[in-house]
Amino acid sequence: MRVTHPRIAVLALLAVAAAWGSTFFLTKDLLTRMDVADYLALRFAIASVALILIRPPAIGRLSRLDRGRGVALGITYGIAQLVQTEGLRHTSASVSGFVTGMYVVFTPLLAAVILRHKIGRWAWVAVALATIGLGVLSLRGFSLGTGELLTLASAGLYALHIIGLGAWSTPSNAFGLSSLQMLVITAVCAVGAIPGGFTLPSGGGDWAAVVYMALIAGALALIVQTWAQAHLTPTRAAIAMTMEPVFASAFAVLFGTDSVTGRMLIGGALVMTAMYLVELAPRRKFEAEVQHLAQ
Predict the structure, then answer these.
(1) Could you tell me which residue, 7 or 154, shows the higher pLDDT?
(2) pLDDT of 93 higher than 50
(3) What is the DSSP string of 117-131?
(4) Closest CA to 234 of 188, 286, 277
(5) Residue 106: is it exposed, middle or buried by C-beta count within 10 angstroms (0-12/13-18/19+)?
(6) Is the pLDDT of residue 28 over 50?
(7) Which ranges carry the EamA domain (predicted)?
(8) How would you classify residue 294: left for phi > 0, otherwise alpha for psi between -120 and 50, otherwise beta?
(9) Which of 75, 126, 54 is nearest to 286 (CA)?
(10) pLDDT higher than 70, residue 269
(11) pLDDT value, residue 287
């Protein structure tokens, strides 16, 4: 069953978006001293240990079906992380954040194809606004570089993860599903780290950044996302999470090297308008879009 106040779930996803947005400038700096796969494997390994220590029996209580789904979700998310983080090497933190947000476009399109559900007109209006906003913020002319293309590919994978999580997560399996996903993500990233060998952060500041991203933007964020998506349709969740690139740009300006531009303000306003429209639109329009799949 869904909660009677789904806006709580939306607020929870906004908190997740803020946590994720805070990682772009940190990761951009860290990648000047660490390999992509090494960083990701360490980050998710720490997150996995934390989740298992908090609730050791959670994975064991999952059904066989849920375990299979958790593995599939973890593989999808792990590959998306590797592709997105490699893309971040070749573009700015703010551009990476906004191109990643293109999952708001892929989510309803893939949901309509995979789950064969009609998407309401208000959702399409919100998707269109978010798309225009993302374009204003991230596109430079009519060409995309290697970093943008890799990040766009990761956005498609994130959309698949959002759809799967929305269809398969429930309040009762949220923690176990999060823990299993985290273990699988760690394994995927570790495989990517094998060819070049494994290196650890070189200083206290780098360790602090990795631990923060592991525990707050990793373990806690995935638990909250999994719980929230048990109460929301995938399209509505994706639109709420488009605030991630807005937060990414804000943090990049406050603590990184990016500066405020007119494009950033206009694009960010359009993305925020899209999310606001989701909350103002008639509730039945969104609740009918993509139904949560019963166990």
Answers:
(1) 154
(2) yes
(3) -PPPHHHHHHHHHHH
(4) 286
(5) buried
(6) yes
(7) 8-138, 147-278
(8) beta
(9) 126
(10) yes
(11) 43
Q: DSSP characters for 177-224?
A: HHHHHHHHHHHHHHHHHTTT-----SSHHHHHHHHHHHIIIIIIHHHH
- pLDDT tens digit string along 38-65? 999 999 999 999 999 999 899 999 999 9
pLDDT of residue 149: 87
Place of tokens 């090297």: 257
Mean pLDDT computed over every residue of the chain: 82
What whole-number distance in Å separates Cα of residue 230 and Cα of residue 228? Answer: 5
User: What residues form DSSP beta bridges with 143?
Assistant: 140
Residue 152's alpha-carbon distances to 1, 9, 43, 185, 209, in angstroms, are 34, 26, 22, 20, 25
User: In angstroms, rounded to a whole number, what is the distance separating the alpha carbons of residues 19 and 190?
Assistant: 23
Q: Is residue 35 within 8 Å of 206, Cβ to Cβ?
A: no
**Residue 235 — pLDDT band, cuts 50, 70, 90?**
confident
| C-alpha distances in Å from residue 15, one per residue of 31, 59, 241 | 25, 25, 9
> What pLDDT is attached to residue 292?
42
Name the amino acid, one letter, at 70.
G
Asked if 75 and 250 count as a contact pair (C-beta separation under 8 A), the reply is no
Question: For 133-166, b where at least 16 C-beta lie within 10 A, e where not — what string?
Answer: bbebbbbeeeebeebbbbbbbbbbbbbbbbbbbb
Q: Which of 103, 71, 100 is nearest to 86 (CA)?
A: 100
